[in-house]
Amino acid sequence: MCVNYHSPTREQFGTLGAFSELPADWRWPEEVWKDYSAPIVRRGSDGGPMACLASYGMVPRRHIPPGVKPFDTMNARAESLGERRSFAPAWRRLQLCAVPMAWFYEPCYESGRAVRHAIGMADDSLFYVAGLWREWTEADGTLSSSFTQITINADDHPLMSRMHKPDDEKRSLVVIAPDEMEDWLACRDVETARSFLRHYPAARMKDWAAPQAVAKKTPEPSPNLSLF
Asked: Pfam families this protein is in (predicted)?
């Protein structure tokens, strides 16, 4: 499962569709981990795409009740979207989002040990990953957003089947090309949405050995910011 990815810079994000300007106080890290703030795109009240900052993981750690063992919700399995309590309400309400990326990271064991690999587009272009989002009411009464990524089985995918431990089930994020992003967000029934949960052609992707991850910092809560 992907738990870490490289997000676009502000300048790169501006090349995706209509998002040429972002609020000056928006900040996000290049490498995104659980509970970090990062940009996503979702359907706005006018029906068009809306950019916002959201925390990575459908249930932020700060919203896990005291006494409950921390759990991860950075990835949502496509096969159980309608069943898992963390994801089912957002899936049924079609709270779909698209997560912009430059590449994401997975472990590759082909050498006999885990080697961190980056996975992106063959032409180095930016892309989106299918996800779900939801809102939270913070202690001060403000609203914040969070998101998760959707994954599918990748046992037969020429590239993604090479990732993870040999005996583990192979999984892949659902890559959405920029020209399909608005169609994904516009889905009005779950069956149409499911039709997008398919593999991206391996021939249009590439992987490479990547430097080890930098030390993770304590994330700050996501601000309630959006761009229409």
From this structure: SRAP
